[in-house]
Amino acid sequence: MGKKLKRLFSGIQPTGEIHIGNYQGAIKQWVKLIDKYECFYCIVDYHAITIEYNVREMPDKILKTAVCLIACGLNPEKCVLFVQSHVPEHTELAWVLNTVTAIGDLQRMTQFKEKSQQHKGNVNVGLFTYPVLQAADIILYKADVVPVGEDQFQHVELSRRIARKFNALYGKTFPEPQHLSTESPRIIGLDGQYKMSKSRNNYIGILESDEIIWEKISRAVTDPARKTKKDPGNPEICNMYSLHKLYSSREEIENSAENCKKASWGCLDCKRILWKNIVESLKPIKQKANELENNIDYVHNILKENADKSRKIAKETMNEVREKLGILI
Ligand code: AQP
């Protein structure tokens, strides 16, 4: 019999189109880790309702997120890909964890501060306790590791604190989950300022057409020193150069840097190469997504079957939690 694999959990919100920041910061690594861990990948729809959203579009967004994840290489035969709300134990455990989480800890969360600014008209309690639900998502499966982008490190650290506090109060129940980082934990958006993000609309979507991607790249912010084609630039502070490092060949990267420093290329020359490479890398993902969209019942079934698998484990954990809490069973 093979060695028991450690367990992994990670999630993504169905808040819009999956972008290359999600891919480079998280999903690419999720795919690589499938054979090394027992993997649970969750479409966290209850997290997505903490900001304003279009109710009618939500079911399609959830399905499209699943399509994109499978198209990116998450083989549903080898991991458990499911929807958070299909397993009610997530919200049940979140309630319990609310009672062991300090308000001060939640007030320190950078994401809460940023999202409160971004969504000033809708700073709801769900947005505030978002990290508690996230902790519940993770520890419900007693996950050992959580591969996420840099923006989520703080939340995973809080999940550890919450697990530790629960264990201290009620007896050892949960492992303390550790985050796993990728080589590109923070992809900056096309505004050259904020992290690439669905809600900031500064992203390149993995299913966007070649034309739209060119439109976006051609308008993307570069080194401000390059006011005209004749002004030399510093590639190290240009976000296009960071993306080149992820998508272009060594020779293309070196050429871009050199020609930028000497001002022998304009930014559009450099962007054209980047565009060609990004578009090329997305081709197989788009093709697979197209196939899946034509067979959406298959995707639906995967989500349904996997919710059953997740629920089995979730129920066991909740029974244990209730017993530890002294709740009459
Ligand atoms: N720019 C990024 N660089 C690296 N990693 C990123 N991730 C997101 N953006 C970047 C990682 O992708 C995973 C899924 O994220 P999510 O969609 O659940 O939540 P998010 O971080 O809030 O993503 P967005 O695009 O910024 O969504 P909105 O705008 O809706 O809030 C996570 O592991 C995340 O770290």
Could you describe the 3D structure shown?
With 329 residues, the protein is mainly alpha-helical. It folds into 2 domains: 7-187 and 296-325, Rossmann fold (3-Layer(aba) Sandwich); 210-289, Tyrosyl-Transfer RNA Synthetase (Orthogonal Bundle). Helices cover 54% and strands 7% of the residues. The protein contains 14 helices and 5 strands. It has helices at 20-33, 45-48, 58-71, 89-98, 103-107, 110-118, 125-128, 130-140, 153-170, 210-219, 239-247, 250-261, 267-293, 296-325, and strands at 7-12, 38-43, 80-83, 145-147, 178-180. The strands form 2 sheets. Strands 1-2-3 form a 3-stranded parallel beta sheet. A two-stranded parallel ribbon has the order 4-5. Helix 4 (89-98) packs parallel to helix 14 (296-325). The mean pLDDT is 96. Bound molecules: adenosine-5'-tetraphosphate. Residues 12-13, 15, 21-22, 25-26, 148-149, 151-152, 185-187, 195-199 line the site of adenosine-5'-tetraphosphate (AQP). Adenosine-5'-tetraphosphate (AQP) is lined by residues 12-13, 15, 21-22, 25-26, 148-149, 151-152, 185-187, 195-199.
